[in-house]
Write a structure and sequence with these properties.
Structural class: alpha+beta
Radius of gyration: 11 Å
Strand order of the largest sheet: 1-2
Number of helices: 3
Shape: globular
Largest sheet: 2 strands, antiparallel
């Protein structure tokens, strides 16, 4: 079963807004669109989101880590 986060995380890259609703979507976004895949932050959020998608880590922890990483990378969209 796929869990939906309590609140979406919106990201903006090249004038396009991406809405992330759960850990699986976060993993897909990290793999395809993330701007800096070499950073330590990327490695950390990748593992947390993978673990959440597998049910090992709570969804709230993954969402928080993903949002913090997006903010650090300058792609968090805050309308």
């Amino acid at each position: 079963m796929i869990s939906i986060w309590d609140a979406n995380v919106e990201l903006k890259i090249d004038d396009r807004v991406h809405v992330i609703r759960n850990a699986r979507e976060a993993v897909a976004f990290l793999k395809k669109y993330w701007p800096d895949k070499r950073s330590a932050t990327y490695a950390t959020v990748w593992k947390v989101c993978l673990d959440a998608a597998s049910g090992v880590v709570p969804d709230a922890e993954a969402r928080s880590a993903f949002e913090a990483a997006a903010k650090e990378s300058g792609i968090l969209h805050q309308p």
